[in-house]
Specification:
heterodimer, A: mainly alpha, B: eight-stranded mixed β-sheet
């Protein structure tokens, strides 16, 4: 009896994570979302191997097959320059995922430390940082992004900057709220009494305890960022042709919706499914991290 | 015996309102004119009911908050005048164990990380040496080596408190603030932890400030006791004096209501009337006069009593004390 218990004790650290994963995977929608994200990632990574017409995916035109309906040659049809839409969507996944990751990393890198500082120190520093976030959040995000791109010039890099600027305050608010409740906890007091520096308290004691809501938010935001990039692309302010982008494809295909329905439909579906996938996973993580929600599935 | 800790006229006021309409700020007078000394090797109990300011005193001593006025000196050094480097050295000599073992350990850190953190901050120990010291400490507080990699939520309250004690002792401090270390534990575990605290004191020659609202626990562990009421110390004396010859009416009332496990014994219990007044509007004169069963004289309402020396290290802040002694 004794031996297996000891064995189990040693592994409890790892078992915790397995229990967490189990909680996440209990919800079928989360599993579906995870499957979508994994598939999408594989597609993006192996785009040159998967795409039936890699050169058309990158932008080479093929004028003899203009606006061909879905067939065995072109599963999802072709666009007005004769390019295979499936290949374009596959290459577009690269742009969308890469941009989403870049934006989310940027907003977390800016927003989270500011939130930690505001919440931990409080007082005047808090006041200054929070009024700054209020000022930014008071602008309509898309309008601000459009203004920024208009000022900097339309290309993907500027579009990513433009999306990040109105976005980081959400992470500042989220982290600040967590930090305020955590700084009153006795383990923080104990660390202070030991003489641990403020910097170490913030990043070693407070940050690890507010990671779960940040991760949930980041997952949900991946989807919204893809949507925003597509939105800017639709308006002609994001990716510039011939680089494949779902938003741009949707925008170009718009005028063909009545007779060549496949042109705008499939890029739209790609955006829809991707955002849905990230939302499912984000919601699943939120449920798993909230103990009150856990009971619902048991 | 040398003096380890000395508080002189320490005050701490917390502002209550932040609204701009109120020009005149109100203050919670959490600690009012507190002075005492703690000598090397002794255990001093600080007792009082919830909200009387005893935890605030502990936090001031640990330099977690600054006093509004007064001086705190640790081994003849003014704690609040220390420079960064001196402060670090002083912090090494002081430890703390908090009341709630569930919130005093970081849930995301393993036991090894928790106990090793003070060593990482204050010493150059690394790798195996560091781990050896941590294991040594865990054994000293009665825990096994195999809990190094485990996390706080896997332990019971008593075990967690042992971990907190190990963390407090890892730097070989001379002085420990114990802020109600046993009040969150059930009685049998309380006794174990108390005995551990007493054993460690003998082994390591420690000095304790033991903050508690539980008089039985304090009687068990303390050499001297200080009684606080509404931010002021009303009586200081040896444990024997406080329990067998209390002078201050408040102390008398506290002692009289300690349950005695003997149904035959007759005694007069003193029940205080009313609630503790708000620390925002402290009564004039002796802050206890509104509830004091003995206060009659005008002087109680008018003048704030100071601690009077009754001899043999017994101090009482009461206008009527002279009459009794």
């Amino acid at each position: 009896m004794k031996a297996p218990k000891k064995e189990a004790d040693k592994e409890t650290g790892g078992r915790e994570y397995w229990r967490g994963l189990h909680l996440v995977l209990r919800n079928p929608l989360t599993v579906l979302g995870l499957a979508i994200i994994i598939t999408l990632t594989l597609i993006a990574v192996f785009a040159p191997q998967i795409a039936p017409y890699p050169d058309q995916g990158r932008g080479a035109s093929n004028l003899k097959d203009r606006l061909a309906p879905p067939s065995f040659d072109h599963f999802l049809g072709t666009d007005d320059l004769g390019r295979d839409i499936l290949s374009r969507i596959i290459y577009g996944a690269r742009v969308s995922l890469k941009s989403a990751i870049i934006v989310v990393v940027i907003v977390i890198a800016i927003g989270t430390p500011l939130g930690l500082i505001a919440g931990y120190f409080g007082g005047r520093i808090d006041e200054v940082i929070m009024r700054m976030t209020d000022a930014i959040l008071a602008f309509p995000a898309l309008l601000l992004a459009i203004a920024i791109v208009a000022a900097l010039g339309p290309n993907l890099t500027n579009a990513l900057i433009a999306i990040s600027i109105p976005w980081w305050p959400w992470y500042t608010r989220l982290t600040r709220g967590q930090a305020i409740s955590l700084r009153e906890r006795q383990f923080v007091e104990a660390a202070k009494a030991i003489g641990v520096s403020d910097f170490r308290i913030m990043f070693r004691h407070i940050l690890p305890n507010c990671l779960s809501p940040i991760i949930v938010q980041a997952t949900l935001d991946m989807g919204y960022v893809i949507l925003s990039i597509a939105g800017l692309g639709f308006l002609g302010l994001g990716t510039q042709p011939p680089t494949p982008d779902w938003g741009v494809m949707l925008s170009n295909g718009r005028e063909f919706v009545l007779y060549e329905w496949w042109y705008p439909t499939f890029p739209g579906l790609a955006i829809f499914i991707t955002v849905l996938g990230f939302n499912f996973v984000g919601d699943g993580l939120r449920e798993a991290s909230d103990p009150r929600m856990r009971g619902k599935f048991r | 015996m040398s003096v380890v800790l000395k508080l002189t006229n320490v005050r701490k006021y917390f502002p209550t309102t932040k609204s701009f309409s109120q020009r005149k700020k109100e203050y919670v007078k959490a600690v009012e004119d507190v002075s005492f000394i703690i000598r090397e090797g002794e255990t001093v109990g600080l007792v009082g009911e919830s909200g009387c300011g005893k935890t605030t005193v502990g936090r001031i001593i640990l330099r977690l908050i600054a006093p509004t006025a007064g001086q705190v000196s640790f081994r003849d050094q003014d704690l609040f005048a220390l420079r960064k480097e001196e402060l670090r050295k002083t912090r090494k000599k002081m430890g703390v164990v908090f009341q709630d073992p569930y919130s005093s350990l970081n849930p995301r850190m393993s036991i090894q990380e928790i106990v090793a953190e003070p060593l990482k901050i204050h010493t150059n120990l690394k790798g195996l040496e560091l781990q050896e010291r941590v294991v040594e400490l865990l054994k000293q507080v009665g825990l096994k080596e195999d809990c190094l990699r485990r996390y706080p939520h896997e332990f019971s309250g008593g075990q967690r408190q042992r971990i907190a004690i190990a963390r407090a002792l890892v730097l070989n401090p001379a002085f420990l603030v114990l802020d109600e270390p046993t009040s969150a534990l059930d009685v049998s575990v309380q006794a174990q932890v108390l005995n551990l605290i007493i054993e460690l004191q003998k082994e390591l020659n420690l000095t304790y400030l033991f903050i508690s609202h539980d008089l039985i626990v304090v009687e068990y562990i303390a050499d001297r006791i200080m009684v606080m009421y509404l931010g002021r110390i009303v009586e200081i004396g040896s444990t024997d004096k406080i329990f067998n010859h209390p002078i201050h009416p408040y102390t008398k009332a506290l002692i009289s209501v300690i349950p005695i496990p003997d149904i035959c014994q007759q005694r007069k219990e003193i029940f205080l009337e009313g609630d503790v007044p708000s620390p925002v509007n402290v009564p004039s004169g002796c802050s206890f006069h509104t509830r004091c069963p003995e206060a009659k004289e005008e002087v109680c309402k008018r003048e704030i009593p100071i601690l009077k020396d009754l001899g043999q290290e017994h101090y009482v802040a009461c206008h009527l004390a002279k009459v009794e002694s």
